[in-house]
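Readers of this paper often ask what the protein records in our data store actually look like. Such a record has a labelled line for the sequence and another for the backbone structure tokens. Nothing more is needed to write down the fold, since each code stands for a local backbone conformation. The remainder of this section carries one protein's record, kept here as part of the documentation.
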Amino acid sequence: MTQIGGVQSWYLTVTLQLIIAATLHQSFATVAPPTTAPPHKDPSRPERGNYVINNSNGTCLLASMGLQLNITLSSTSLNKAVQDVVNIQPNLTKSSGSCGPDFASLQLTTDAEKTNLTFFFTLNTTSNKYRLSGVSLSAILPNVKEPFSAHNSSLDYLQGTLGYSYMCREEQTLDVAQNLSINTFQVQVQPFGLAGDQFGAAEECQLDEDDMLIPIIVGAALAGLVLIVLVAYLIGRKRSHAGYQTI
């Protein structure tokens, strides 16, 4: 009987571990990971816009993404830096751009042409890898006397392979300059190697891969615990049956 009680106690301990693991899995599923994005005055997510650039050969650039600008301004009256958050609204935005063998651009003009946001992509013809290499923003903001501008031509974001699209479902923050960062949502972009007017096969970002990896690890741990509990139960039954036979 002592052996049976010990097995039952061990069975309860393992079951408790299983419950704790399930609780941790639930917390992974419901608690959002921290983000490096600056705090937003406007927490609403921007709408996802679809942008197409054509040249004489047909469609040469496709982009689908939600964009949110985080602009830092120096306030003379408040004597400190303040942040303005601007969502790019696709239905009020015009797109234009250009494509070349190893260079492409996407310009988004919005807010009655007061805001001009341009993305620059470059292709390394040796490695057949492309990237977002530059961003430029000029904007006339309300209650600000001077036009706002920011530019960086040495970026290394949204990296992909020629003929493939870059995809990232998770929110990302692209740090452009000290006074500008861009939050991107549900990005899919392909600035080179398009075949027709459709995206090529997607290469997913590291954030998406990590997000998929966590449920796999937790699921494998739960499966292992279930197997241990099942083996313990079978061993306990076998020993209890042998004990009854001896009595």
In short: Helices lie at 2-30, 206-246. The first strand starts at residue 48 and ends at 55.
